[in-house]
Amino acid sequence: MSKSEDWDLPDLDATMKGERQHDWISEPRFKKMFSEIEDGLQGVLGKGTYDWVDRRVFDAVFDRSTLLSLHKLMEKGDIETIDYPIARGKEAHVFHATSNHGPVAVKIFHTTNAVFKSLTKYIDGDPRFGGLKRRHRELVKTWVRKEYRNLKRMRKVGLPVPRPLAILNNVLIMDLIGNRDEPAPRLKDVIVDDPKGVFDDLLDYLAICWQSCDLVHGDFSEYNILWYDGEPWIIDVGQAVVAAHPNSEEFLVRDVTRLVKWINSQGYSIDLGESLLRVLEDEVPSLTPYSDGD
Ligand SMILES: Nc1ncnc2c1ncn2[C@@H]1O[C@H](COP(=O)(O)OP(=O)(O)O)[C@@H](O)[C@H]1O
Ligand SMILES: [Mg+2]
After folding, report:
1. Around Cβ 188, how many Cβ atoms within 10 Å?
2. 3-state class (DSSP) for residue 277
3. I need a labelling partner for 278 at 20 to 30 A (CA). Which of 50, 67, 81, 151 fits?
């Protein structure tokens, strides 16, 4: 994501004032809910470290149904406060948040996206497509459930992925990888002392995932590996598919290829074919399962 897409935007209160789009916030039934979660959202509402100036970005993340979901999660204590954004992407924003047990990562999937928005131009008002928005929301929900399940399944064989804590609609709450106020950097952003050691571990993880977990990550890259406490942690597993998926082998080859490219960019010359064989055929080490896995 480029630096120019700035987080620092003008005061949200000012921006929102007089915007008809936000009128729902003052409807009596939402007003109560909104004032209840306003405190929890101070960190990202413009009173904390980050201001949203671009209302469209705020809308894309905190739409009405998302606020309702967050409200429920706050009532349950899964979230006390949403503190600041860690990362934002086309499909999701990830926030540092605090639960009643400590820091957590909250991944909020957008329920609308650019493609979808441009489509609505053509279908809004066409009675045949009345259910499309709902269907899109359902799709996002399924995606979130899939990420949750994949995380559980990977933890069951001991793979280092964040522990999923709760899901509701388009919101996934998981352990924060990192220290209390310091989310872990991506592998892309660090220099590791022993790249070959990290490569071997990661190749083992791909093999364990394939052989013991029956899953292929599908988007394995230095962007989706966090570096914490001297160890790599795998994240972003929503797209992971089972081995029976028609493209699973193609995805596996791609994941291994990316990993080999990474290590070779660190001055090594590791052979792709051998690495693939290791993943497919070598006996994999067994890791200690996490007790919270499925
Ligand atoms: N559990 C977590 N702990 C700390 N940081 C996280 C966690 N999950 C995600 N992140 C941060 O958020 C970014 C985006 O999360 P990711 O799951 O990769 O979503 P996307 O689908 O947008 O790529 C990551 O690159 C990482 O910096
Ligand atoms: Mg990612």
Report:
1. 13
2. helix
3. 151
DSSP-assigned letter for residue 148: H
CATH number of the domain to which 220 belongs: 1.10.510.10
0.90 surpassed by pTM: no
**Ligand 1: which of 146, 236, 237 to mutate, judged by most atoms within 8 Å of the beta carbon?**
236
- Which pLDDT value is given to residue 294? 63
Nearest alpha carbon, ligand 1 atom 19: 236
Q: Which ligand is nearest to the CA of 107?
A: 1
The finding on whether 235 has its CB within 6 A of some atom of ligand 1 is yes
138 in any annotated domain: yes
pLDDT band (50, 70, 90) for residue 204: very high
Yes or no: say if 59 and 72 are a contact pair by the CB < 8 Å rule. Answer: no
The Cα–Cα gap between 242 and 213 comes to: 8
